[in-house]
Amino acid sequence: MSDAFDPDYDTGRDVVVPATILESDDGSHGQSDRLLADLNPQQRVAVEYRGPALLIVAGAGSGKTRVLTHRIARLIENNEAWPSEILAITFTNKAASEMRERVEQLLGQSAEGMWISTFHSACVRILRRESEHFGVTSGFTIYDSADSRTVIKRIIKDLRSDTLGFTVSSVAGKISRLKNDLIDVDGYSRQANFDDPREVMFVEIFRRYARVLRESNAFDFDDLIGQTVYLFRAFPLVTARYQRRFRHVLVDEYQDTNHAQYSWIRELTRPVPRDVVEQVGFETVVRGSADDGNGGIIGASLTVVGDSDQSIYAFRGADSRNIGEFERDFPESSVVLLEQNYRSTQNILSAANAVIANNFDRKDKKLWTADGDGEKIVGYTGFSGHDEAQFVADEIAALHKVGMDYRDMAVFYRTNAQTRALEEILIRSAVPYRVLGGTKFYERAEIKDALAYLATVANPHDVLALRRIVNVPKRGIGSATETQLARFAEANEISLREALRNSSALGFGPKITGAIVQLATVLDGASAMLDPDNPAGQSSIAEVLTFLLERSGFIDSLRASKDPQDETRAENVDELVAVTREFAVNNPDGQLVDFLTEVALVAAADELDDSSGTVSLMTLHTAKGLEYEAVFLTGVEEDLLPHRMSAGEPGGPAEERRLFYVGITRARKRLFLSLAMTRAQFGETSVAMPSRYLQEIPTGLIEWRQSPGAATSHGGTRSRALNPPRDRFGHNRRDSSKTDVASSTSEPKTAWTSRITSKARDNGDLELAPGGRIRHLDFGEGRVSRVTGEGAKRIAHVEFDSGAAKKLLIKIAPIEKI
DNA sequence: ATCGTCGATTTTTTT
DNA sequence: AATCGACGAT
Q1: Per the residue annotation, which of A310, A418, A568, A591 is the catalytic one?
Q2: Residue A259 half-sphere exposure toward CB, CA atoms < 13 A
């Protein structure tokens, strides 16, 4: 995203009122009717209403994105606003790009100049522009939560605060909550009780944390919002440029905004008083409608869309009261209610309505559809998590058989840990799937290492990044050496980076000194490659990254390693280089910091690739805002949904219910609710109880393939009668006898386990290494050339003696070592 | 400084 | 089950 943005730019061009505006007063001109034609009456009001503030209460699937995009398009098409006067805030990057696309589609032109982005992206953009007002440079690093935790971990260790019961997560959570409430160290200490040693310690931790970030020229996620609010409040003249530019502010998922985000919106939509206008001395005249008639500028028009029933982020500071109190906060506001649902069948909606009705402190709202009841919700109680997973896999296969695309199906779960069983079974059942937001690509250690190299180049002050790579690959720089370097830097008041360069003065052994100086040279060399004054010209990000990876020895150490996983890691790093190239194509003017920003702000749902043709697996949180033809909501059990951890928290069970509600309302045609009677966790198996939320669904809406009661009282025998095995997947038939033999020793005498194991062979963790020989049932003997992938998805690349080269999924391929 | 082993601890959700 | 940290051996 190139930043050719200037807040003063082009808002004032429109001193002449376009003729279309005069015409539009009676709402009857032809051109824009196209934008209203396919809207219901409420949606129309939401699109056409003009006023200082509008709250659109949009039930699930009621077409809120449609309303927002049409509203924006209409503002533009009617010449009520220039594209640059629009600011639309969404929750994820995916939602933002989707909205941009749809607006462009409606307008038939590019939406250039509009800001359609997430809170965090918008804040980064503002902060980088205005960084001169802070003690940071525009090249600041963004610390993700893992980075924050690393910093906190070191502080806790240094201060030995674990003796007072401080843990990384408790401190990280508290700091995050404070920042979301716009409370900084000083603000906190003002009301802290200093008689309490824990309080004193916390203040000290908080203070050090803030200092580390400041010295590292870094912001954490929460700072991005909080510091922007601070900027808005402290520098009215700066803020006025944004307040003047953005005449129409639209916010999606308003129920998930926290206090900092709320304040951000508040500041941005404030009127600009006359004296500020005069001080700034805007060169251009403001659009007539923004003139308050007294030399000032009226506040921007604010449109928020939300549904308090879908508020599922209270745990991290989201305050759905923001939506409840909108009318009080913005006195001249209006409210539009969207209840007609265009997504799901009535059976699904009735279930959702019945469940959410149990939350008492809500405005009553009932979703309805004109599209009929549809099929019943299917319920299934498995005996174990694996049995449940098998049900999911079977139903997916059945749906696929009758023509449903894999990409139209999704499996939801409360916790990421539940993916294990699901993945195992889906692999065995040959169902193509993707896990969204599991261990993300950018969270892998080797990727974070490579990115840390880039971060040290982009931001030489970034101590965390430098410390991360100082001994990666192993250079013989252990903690002792590192501590000495840090002390040296502090004593001489130089940066750690500078200390590295001058390390020969420290009297380390020649080997270590050489390694340190070599690292400093590589980093400086990379910096030079990006120097705009470099006579050789600036290098691309990919070139810099490749330079760093090669000269530092990082990539070689991975390639030379004996650990077979390092080969995969090297491939991941190569993949990262490819990502930088792709970034350069999409962002011709993109600088290194822009790349690092983009990488830091990707969310789980952003990974979604609609064209992938696979079933999507994700947590219920990630699922918000998405929809699928068929949805499998798994693990509907007590202690899981609602989660055990939510029980103690005030409002916890209600929030969990909303989570369940969000899951239900993602489904268009088919909804499957499943649970297991026993679930493995911490490596132990415990008994699970059906979720209380299940009882809240009218019994007539669910057709139980195996009800919780039946599963308990009749053991496994009943399940097969009710749920006869379907035939599919003939490809393993030939070695089925072998599988039976292998599993017969340990197989309990219940029918349900055999349902799973007889399906496909399982080589489990068969160890294969490059160079090894194997025999394949069909292809004969061959040599393994390499092994890629991890866990259940490990793939052997085999060159068969017949000459054929094949890639085989190790877990299920009919192969054996020879 | 690095590697290996043992034991503790973990799992709620994420921009 | 799997990761992480502490500790001891090399």
Answers
A1: A310
A2: 11
Could you tell me the distance in Å between the CA of residue A731 and the C1' of nucleotide B15? 44
- Which residues 6+ apart lie within 8 Å of A204 measured at CB? A159, A161
Q: Is the CB of A157 under 7 A from strand C?
A: yes
Instruction: Give the Cα separation of A263 and A265 in Å (integer).
Output: 5
Three-state SS for A540? coil
Residues 6 or more apart whose Cβ sits within 8 Å of residue A798: A774, A776, A779, A782, A783, A784, A785, A805, A806, A807, A808
pTM over 0.70: yes
Buried/exposed code over A624-643 (b: 16+ C-beta within 10 A; e: otherwise)? bbbbbebbbbbbbbbbbbbb
Cross-strand pairs, A131: none
* A145 sits within 7 Å of strand B by its CB: yes
Distance, CA of A315 to C1' of B13, in Å: 8
Distance CA A770, CA A741 (A): 29
Give the three-state DSSP class for A705: strand
Beta strand residue intervals within A600-707, DSSP E: 615-619, 628-633, 667-676, 678-681, 684-687, 702-706
CA angle A469, A472, A473 (to 5 degrees): 150
Whole-angstrom distance, CA of residue A457 vs CA of residue A139: 10
**Total Cβ atoms within 10 A of residue A122:** 23
Which nucleotide, over all strands, has the C1' atom closest to the CA of A439? B14
Distance CA A32, CA A19 (A): 14
Residue A685 has pLDDT above 70, yes or no: yes
Q: At what angle do helices A259-268 and A221-234 cross, to 10 degrees?
A: 30
Mean pLDDT across A285-296: 72
The pLDDT assigned to A18 comes to 29
Q: How far apart are CA A391 and CA A565, in angstroms?
A: 32
When pLDDT is averaged across residues A709-735 and rounded to a whole number, the result is 40
Q: Distance, angstroms, CA A787 to C1' C10?
A: 32
Residue nearest to nucleotide B14 (CA to C1'): A603
What dihedral do alpha carbons A419, A423, A425, A430 form, nearest 10°?
150
| Angle between the N-to-C axes of helices A236-245 and A259-268, in degrees from 0 to 180, rounded to the nearest 10 | 80
SS3 A393: helix
Higher pLDDT, A94 or A698: A698
Strands A615-619 and A377-382 turn out to be: unpaired
DSSP SS3 for A9: coil
As ranges, strand C nucleotides with an atom below 7 A of a protein CB are 1-2, 5-6
> At which residue do the structure tokens 């909550």 appear?
A177
In the predicted structure, residue A7 carries a pLDDT above the cut 60 = no
What CA–CA distance (Å, rounded) separates A209 from A151?
7
Q: Could you identify the residue written with the tokens 């939510």?
A: A646
Q: Is A104 a catalytic residue?
A: no
Strands A377-382 and A702-706: parallel
Among A94, A666, A759, A794, which one carries the catalytic annotation?
Answer: A666
Question: Nearest nucleotide, C1' to the C-alpha of A417?
Answer: B11
- Average pLDDT of the residues of chain A: 81
Q: Shortest CA distance to A494 belongs to which of A524, A531, A463, A468?
A: A463
* Gap between the Cα atoms of A30 and A47, Å rounded: 16
From the candidates A253, A319, A594, A656, which is the catalytic residue? A253
